[in-house]
Please model this.
Amino acid sequence: MRRRHLVALLLTALALGLLGAGCLDGEEQSATPETVQGTLPTSTGLTEQLPAMKLTGDATAGKQVFETAGCKGCHTLADAGATGTVGPNLDDAKPDKDLVITRVTKGMGAMPPFAGQLTDQQIADVAAYVVQATGGS
Ligand code: HEC
Model:
């Protein structure tokens, strides 16, 4: 009799244990790579080719653009003495050239597009400057 109780207890414990494990398995399955749809983004997630990407930027001219186009009001960039906090701190973000060109050309969120305001050359220049000033690539 006592033995039977023990077996029943063990079986119950086992069943509960399996149930618990079952729940965990379910959660894990929803996070497996097989369930992720679409393509993986590249390092910056940028695929669109913009005119300024074909030009060679001049970092010296780009510093002038950075200081006069309004970038300083929104971004922190030590080299330009900029302390804006509306957008990301560029010293920390270290954006690559194509990301700067894409954001400056097209804008994003609170950042306005500069496409009609700056020439493609000026956009290439400011990108070269930001990359040089932040030590990015
Ligand atoms: C009105 C404020 C404002 C101005 C002016 C502005 N930006 Fe921005 N910028 C932002 C905001 C906000 C973001 C973040 C956009 C997002 O990711 O949603 C941003 C994003 C960026 C990024 C991408 C940073 C990253 O790591 O994601 C770069 C590079 C950048 N700006 C450069 C510039 C340059 C160069 C200028 C001047 C030509 C400029 N910005 C002018 C607000 C501004």
In short: The chain has six helices and two strands. The chain has two domains: 2-34, 51-134.
